[in-house]
Predict the structure of FtsX-like permease family protein.
Amino acid sequence: MNVHPIHAGRRMGKAVGLSCVVAIGLLILMIVGRVPGWGVVPMFLLTETLVYKAFSTTVRKRRQDVALLRCFGASRAQVFNGVLAEAAWIGLFGAVAGQCCTLLLLDIVQFEIAVFALLVGIAGALLAALVPAIQASRIPPSGPSTVA
């Protein structure tokens, strides 16, 4: 059975997804624009926090949907990989947006920097979504327990 938990239930909100893409894009713009190293660190931390919060909220909203998928045979690894796949797409879109802004604003085109920026965007989003992915994979098939 080939179940894709990434397509289960509620999607990440458009505004939340767009804010993640914009934050990653700004980080890439700062990296490619050669902002000194210590100037990038606060933006990196802000971006990681934003992406982490977005995926934590999304996983919390999808608890029942993921539990239902687990009842229908989705493994913990499929749920984990589904969340990380969504994070990788968000990171890729953010990195491409940052590269496009860099091209338009700074007119800088260097292959090595472009590849590095793509790797930073994707790896940063995966790193931020790692804990929510682990939490999603630990949702039991019976669903969340409701304590009155």
Notes: The radius of gyration is 17 Å. DSSP finds six helices and no strands in the chain. The chain has a mean pLDDT of 85.
